[in-house]
Amino acid sequence: MTDGSAIGRFGSGREVRRIEDAGLLAGAGRFSDDISLPGQAYLGFLRSPHPHARIVSIDTSEALAMPGVVAALTGADLVADGVKPLPLAPIFKRPDGSPGASPLRPALAHEVVRFVGEAVVALVAESRAVLKDALDAVVVEYDELPAITGVTQALAADAPQVWPAATGNIAAQMRHGDAAATEAAFQAAAHIVSLDIVNQRLAPTPMEPRSSQADYDAETDRLTLRLSSQMPSGARDTLCDAVLGIPRDKVRVVVDDVGGGFGMKTGLYAEDIMVAYAARKLQRPVKWTAERIEEFLAATHGRDVESRAELALDETGRVLGYRVRSHANVGAYATTAGIIIQLMIGPWVSTSIYDIRTIDLEFTTLLTHTAPTAAYRGAGRPEAIYLIERLFDAAARQLGLDPVEIRRRNLVHPEQMPYTNAMGQTYDSGRFGSIIDQAVGLADWDGFAAREAESRARGKLRGRGLASFLEWTGGNVFEERVTVQVSGDGGIEVYAATMPMGQGIATSYAQLVVDVFGVPIDKIRIVMGDTDRGQGFGSAGSRSLFTAGSAIRHASERAVDTGRELAGDALEAAAADIEYAEGMFRIAGTDRGIGLFELADRQPDRRIFIDATSTVKGPSWPNGCHICEVELDPETGTVDIVSYVSANDVGRVVNPMIVRGQLDGGAVQGIGQALGEHMVYDPETGQVMTATLMDYGVPRADVIRSFVHVLDESTPCLNNPLGVKGVGELGTIGATPAVVNAVADALVRAGHGAAADRLQMPLTPATVWEALR
Description:
This protein is an alpha+beta fold. The chain is 31% helix and 24% strand. A 7-stranded mixed β-sheet has the order 3-5-1-12-9-10-11, with helices on both faces. The chain has a 5-stranded mixed β-sheet with strand order 7-15-14-13-8. Strands 18-26-27-28 form a 4-stranded mixed β-sheet, sandwiched between helices. A hairpin with a 4-residue loop joins strand 9 (211-217) and strand 10. Helix 11 runs parallel beside helix 12 (381-399), helix 16 (505-517) packs parallel to helix 17 and helix 19 packs across helix 20. The longest helix is centred in the last third of the chain and has 28 residues, at 544-571. Mean pLDDT is 96; it is low at 1-8.
């Protein structure tokens, strides 16, 4: 373990050890559930055991009579007190042009429950032990109603309707492209490739479950809310503006360490509302921490899309047209994120790195009696890339082409940059063919036959899969505000409104500060997670480094420029004659100077303070080529990943070790979807079948032997001054199709080509064993 003082003076481009790790490894991490306040009470939920039912009656009398029980709250209480449900942005339409339709999610179910695990009653007690006993004493009478859990059920002519205005259970729909031109392309095609593809429902499963704590100050009428969140400002704004109807300055949101987010912690949850509401109502601190089963049941899920995808190709393998019909199950309460991910964000990258101009895409979001979906690592881009990459491998098989060659014939080339794709999205830079060439070399593509023969000699079936792709990053929020404070006590403090959640962002920020100030990294303190210090969009969409990082460099440079003016006054010289390097201001050509921190100490408030806002020009478009080799055991269906290599264009790299770690972690999550993860609802009962870590197939450490990642810095992003591109989700997007394509390839080589085209995730041993037969 290395602490900050031993790291030394390392700027960007160096493999600086993470400054966050010393405290975390020593047990000094500060997570939401670690914090307790005097007089704190505990909140817990009684959740619906039914996927769809009317609430006939609620009896909390026995619970309230128990010693230590402080309060019982129901949906009716919230309605009476004017607490509004979570909002849905009115930006979507249904097929007939009417507004998008969905029930709005209340913090506690009122009159009707719509999925197993929905909170119905909240109790507040003096201890967690009392709380558990009291929840068992609450009696709720339900009148069960018909329920649906999947796409097929939702689309049935006689399907129960989740919400009256959402006829046909359609929450919203969008179409993109030119249907007539695409149909003409298919009519003229020499080859048509079609696949039915499922991106199954996933549970994000961060190490740290959600936790909320609220403390109300009656004197100031102000609430402090502690969350495990990626977006503190967004949580505050939703709570104040849409739910409680109070001024934003009456709520402070504080976030300390976050033990993983993966998109699941981007929004305000019903449970957070209840904690805030209870603290204000009872005028005492209140805390709730989720149990793991609550995370599986009631936190947002990801993916859950069923698609029919088709490519029209000419006789040489050039794509003439691309057509997709997708249905996304967004759960019982459509979220703004859940809809926009499927209807807009995924489609933005649907043609990926390929020069495909003619498209016809139709995306429909459906309501069912399941937990809502929202962001999960990659958020729409993994679903879209999985479709196109499965299709390209299927097309290569149909045309008798090498999978690499058919991709090369369809690439966007460097001379086409900036390139605007069929969805109107502009790629600023990219050398996609070079990235494929690097990955193919790493994988020893031409030497595969010998490795396959060796595997067969051991009774194993070997296959290889490739995924070449790009992604959009940034959340389309490109402005960021940061503060930089140089203190007379010898430190530099930077505040940013983005959030750390295990990705090492504080270290990367500190390295950028070192670049400008040239001081040891242990002089730098990165602070995040306090809406009283600053507001911003937060961390989502792999945006933190290229938006906030750019702002940090800009603010740091302004601090040095300000210091140059102040040093000129102190040294009685013109600011233009002042040079700065490694913590010292000097008059050029002399030995007269003053130290950065000494200069700050001379100021009236003993600091140099900069509050700066900057804007980058647009998103970044990281891209990569990931190649996986697998061995299948024909007797058991077990899939063993024996090789995984990738070449990745992530622009300028601030910390290669952190970038590789992000690629590793992302790829493991993508492999998890390919091989094991699946959030399963029983279609008959609506019950969750995978609500514990005993049932849900989270990838283990032994899922992969090793990764080899090459980082190509030759094509910096042109939309931000750092030249960096987002990386946090890249591995997830590439891994899933690479692994599935590898398994499909092994099946084809074993004479099971039809089964290869029918493959659906997760590729469990049972699934693969069946495909082999």
